[in-house]
């Protein structure tokens, strides 16, 4: 776990709301000089606290009309098979999110497609041609109610002690 203080937490809260803030704007929001904000941002990125800066795109605006939640079960749960499937997930553009999970399935994926025909082609290529996959279950998303990567952070939490 990273060693973060209340100012780091406040910076993270603000960046999650708007990662396009200038150093001046961010400094004003967290009571810090712009140069001190820059130093902290550099450290937070270097330490992997900030994994990336992204834009959340409306899927329909780029022709991705359907989203699916897919539960995947592997033939065997061996480390080499799990590692191969993780690598396949990372290398597949249609898979927006992938989790290695406990329970009835081994993986939970969020997959995007242009239409159901496009998704069928994806399943043939990604699932049916992979001998390590025992089966998969697809749930079609009817409405995207919330799309966020915002982590709930409370700068007043004990976790964010002064360094």
UniProtKB/TrEMBL annotation:
Pfam families: AsnC_trans_reg, HTH_24. GO terms for molecular function: sequence-specific DNA binding. SUPFAM superfamilies: Dimeric alpha+beta barrel (SSF54909), Winged helix' DNA-binding domain (SSF46785). InterPro entries: ArsR-like_HTH, AsnC-type_HTH_dom, Dimeric_a/b-barrel, Tscrpt_reg_AsnC-like, Tscrpt_reg_AsnC/Lrp_C, Tscrpt_reg_HTH_AsnC-type_CS, WH-like_DNA-bd_sf, WH_DNA-bd_sf. GO terms for biological process: regulation of DNA-templated transcription; response to amino acid. Keywords: DNA-binding, Transcription, Transcription regulation. The keyword Kinase does not apply. PROSITE patterns: HTH_ASNC_1, HTH_ASNC_2. GO terms for cellular component: cytosol. Coiled coil: none annotated. Residues 4-65 form the HTH asnC-type domain. The keyword Transcription applies. PANTHER family: LEUCINE-RESPONSIVE REGULATORY PROTEIN, TRANSCRIPTIONAL REGULATOR AZLB. This is ArsR family transcriptional regulator. It comes from Pseudomonas fluorescens.
């Amino acid at each position: 776990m990273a060693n973060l203080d209340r100012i780091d937490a406040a910076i993270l809260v603000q960046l999650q709301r708007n990662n396009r803030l200038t150093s001046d704007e961010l400094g004003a929001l967290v009571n810090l000089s712009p140069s001190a904000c820059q130093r902290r941002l550099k450290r937070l990125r270097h330490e992997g606290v900030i994994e990336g800066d992204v834009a959340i795109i409306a899927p329909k605006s780029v022709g991705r009309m359907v989203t699916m939640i897919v539960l995947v079960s592997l033939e065997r749960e061996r480390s080499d098979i799990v590692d191969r499937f993780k690598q396949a997930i990372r290398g597949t553009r249609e898979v927006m999110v992938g989790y290695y999970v406990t329970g009835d399935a081994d993986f939970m994926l969020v997959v995007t497609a242009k239409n159901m025909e496009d998704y069928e082609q994806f399943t043939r290529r990604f699932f049916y041609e992979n001998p390590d996959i025992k089966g998969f279950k697809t749930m079609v998303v009817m409405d995207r109610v919330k799309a966020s990567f915002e982590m709930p952070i409370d700068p007043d939490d004990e976790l964010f002690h002064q360094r």
